[in-house]
Description:
Layout: H1 3-34, E1 40-47, E2 52-56, E3 62-63, H2 69-81, E4 90-94, H3 105-109, E5 113-117, H4 118-127, H5 131-141, H6 144-153, H7 165-170, E6 179-180, H8 182-193, H9 195-198, H10 203-214, E7 233-239, E8 242-243, E9 246-247, E10 250-257, E11 263-271, H11 277-295
Helix pairs in contact: 1-11, 2-5, 2-6, 4-5, 4-10
Amino acid sequence: MNTRKITIILLLTLCYMNSSAQVSSLKTSIKHLIKDKKATVGVSVVANDLQDTINVNADLHYPMQSVFKFPIAMAVLAEIDKGNLSLNQEVKITSKDLLPNTWSPIRDKYPNGTTMTISEIISYTISQSDNNGCDILLRLIGSTTTVEAFLQSNQLPNISVKANEADMRKAWSVQFQNWATPAALANLLVKFYSSSSNGMLSKNSYDFLWKTMAETTTGASRLKGQLPQGTVVAHKTGSSGANNGVTVATNDIGVIILPNGKPIFISVLITNSLEEEENNEKIISDIAKVIWDYYSKF
C-alpha cells in the first residue's frame, strides 16, 4: 500500500473517531439534562447527513397521543397518491361527527357541521391537532388498520396505531395502545423527508404535509422553544394531560432545518412524568437546543 493511500485511511479513521467522540459527547449532554428529572425521557436524533445517530432510552414504548396523527396523515396521503381519494375532495361533516369534550378547533368554528376538503381536514388535524378531524380522516381510509398496513408496507416497525381519538377518550388506559419508540419515530421522519426518492409519498403529498407540519401551532415551547426565531421546524406534538399528578405523554417529533439547509431528525417523548408540564416542555427544548448548538456550527 502506498503512502498516499495510508494517509487517506488515517485521515478517514481520524474523522470517524472525532465524529464518534462528538456523538458520544452529545449523548452525555442529553443524559445530563434528564438525569434528575422525575420522568422517563426518550430521545432519538439522526443528523449529519444520516451519519450520526444519538439514542437515549430510545427503544422503550411511549404513548404517542397526538403524534399518531402524523402517520395517519401520511396514510391518508398515500391513499390520495393511489387515486382512492383527492386533496380537493369535499367531505360533509355533521354535528354528530364533532364530539364534545375533546380538543377540536373545527367544532369550535363550525358547531353545527360544515363541508371541508380533505386538505383542510388534514391541516386542522396536523397544524392544530384537531381530534375530531383525526377521526374523520380515519373513517375516510377505513380504520387504524389501514395506517398500520401503510407503516408495515414501508418497513416501519415499532409504531402501533390501534385506537382513534374517540376510543382514547373512553378510558385512560386506551392511549397506551398507540405507542412508538423514539427511534422508530425518528426513522419515520427520515423516510418521510426522503419520500421523493423512496416513493413513500408523491412530491405533491410530501410538499403539502411538510408545509402543514411547518405551520403547526401547538407545542411552541417544545422543539422550537429555544431555537432562533425563524428556524424552520416541521413537527407534530402529543399531550396527555395529567392524571393524579402523573403526565403520561408530553411529546414532540420533527425535522429541524439548520442554517446550512441540512435537516436534523429528532424525536423526544416523555412519559410517567411527575414534573409540571412547563418543565416537561423545557426538557424537550433543552435537548433541541443542545443538538442545535452543536450542528449549527457546521
